[in-house]
Amino acid sequence: MSDISMIRVLLVDDHEMVRIGLAAVLNTEDGIEVVGEAGNGLEGLRLAREYSPDVVLMDLVMDGMDGIETTRRLTEEMPEVRVIVLTSFLDDEKMYPVIEAGAFSYLLKTSRANEIADAIRAAARGQSVLESQVASKMMNRFRRPQQAVAQPHEDLTDREMEVLKLIALGKSNQEIADDLFIGIKTVKYHLTNLFSKLGVEDRTQAAIYAHRNGLAD
What we know:
5 strands, Arc Repressor Mutant, subunit A, Tscrpt_reg_LuxR_C
């Protein structure tokens, strides 16, 4: 980043009228000077090497080299240059890749002239600016959803769950065996397993657990 008072800006956009409008507005802003205009990514790289701008306003969709690849190559070659994306696109396929490529800020072309100028000044100070819609999308993407706490009964097998429900109904081991057409030893085997998985000591605690968790029929 240069130490001179003027912030040197390079415009990279394939629409000439956009470049003309931006240059006209930005050149009236205190401390900002548009030093060059490029109509595509390759020309933008060439002019960046020639003029060494402090900030590059980068469009995303351009013929030949798009804004994502141009940003990647520019930030690798000239890491001191701040790239501000100025685009009409808010879709994930473009936004996240260009930020990962090294874009410093991300603005939409619906931004007001003073907002663009403020973002340029912020970039010169080393501060990133994200348009509110962009910031919201990024927060939604990276916000971690709360993880549901696993319940002990989720580890029960289908048969163990059947035994638990019958315990909750007050059934004895023999009645459980008769209802499920299994032997007493098998019932006891399932009881031992489900007691361990639920962290309870006896059938009374197991029955209470079943009722508290809505598992009793």
